[in-house]
Amino acid sequence: MLDLATPTISERSALKINPAKTCQPIGAMYAALGIHSCMPHSHGSQGCCAYHRSHLTRHFKEPVAATTSSFTEGASVFGGMANLQQALINIFSIYNPEVVAVHTTCLSEVIGDDIPTIIKKAREEGKIPEGKTVIHANTPSFVGSNVTGYSNMCVGIVNYLAEKSGESTEAINIFPGWLDPSDMRELKRLAEELGVKYTLCPDTSDVLDLPQTGVYEMYPKGGTPVEAIKRMGDAIKTVALGEFTAHAAAQKLNDKCGVPFEALDAPIGLTNTDLYIDALRRIAEVDVPASIDAERGRLLDVIQDIGQYFHEVPVAIFGDPDHVVAMTRFAIELGLKPKYIFSGATGRAFENRVHAILDGRFPDAIVKQQGDLFELHERIKADPVKLILGNTYGKHIGRAENIPLVRFGFPILDRVGHRLFPTVGYRGAMHLVEKISDALLDQRDRTCPEEWFELVQ
To answer: What does pTM read for this prediction?
Structure first.
């Protein structure tokens, strides 16, 4: 394993080593998969599309279908309009989706392809069949991250599809942010338990967590139907879960259709789930059922049962900003001590949000946007932690420093279960408590002196 980090912190302004993010089109592709009968389309070279599909497939352990404009030297010089128009003809004639969601890549962005104009021209020339829809989002990889791409595609979904008829649906829109299918399923379960009428968009449950039936379905039953997305403009309110992945789409829907929204963090942990439940309760004017109160009580009980092992344990948290913000709050609720909080997010919003959560209680905590894992490793070498919370790429640091890693967020390439067991809601929080306590207690069992090794530590 490559381990070149030293305890000396190297200040770098232009170079990133193992950045804590990936590129925009991956996020756009994932968001598009949350529309029912949608084919994501990568407007660029075959290599880009292959990498993005591969990365999502390795995380979800499900085949991810997507198409590409297949740029060659000619398109790279003269533009990709002919490629995209021919691609649309092929996609609708061969795969017959309801929606094609086009996202750009570095190459098409550098060329300057005008995607709305290309789509308009294709429709005028009859290359897009009647009743079919093509949407797009600009997602250049040289700026932003996978989180930006996801957010941009969600904005594109609203821009192209949401409408306002003037007849209220009495429903609540839920923009879930970047979450796994199991998390989206849990958000829906909680809404249904409350008796709330809702539209969740995008929705990758029953798309990337399918049962094994022996039959391949290119367009499974999951995903938000186009008709449901169109009616989002007639909802009474929107709940947006994640500042970096959901708030922009909610703002776009407000601007376009006048649907007000509440901006929350991802409902990970006790407080954030409370806020999600309370928002649905207030907007729909319903009471919280005893079943949800019982779930919350069980979470409180398990935290009390295991809390002695979490007290003041220093922890490093890294990953996508919405995940890290929510996990930081939950770590504090558990009694852990956030020491390093890193994300690949750009701008000051991430740092400001985390510092507001820390609220001066952890003055030595190092919070960094546009961070990379090499610097995180250097800091851990200089001043260690006892636990790492983050995605698969943290395993190198964990192995080098003999620190347990609890896998969380995206991507998780070397384990299964994350697409099946939620991390949101009270049930998801209980699952996280179990994973964190198992990691800490297993490490204690492995490393404690013989005279301190007990059946129950």
So the answer is: 0.96
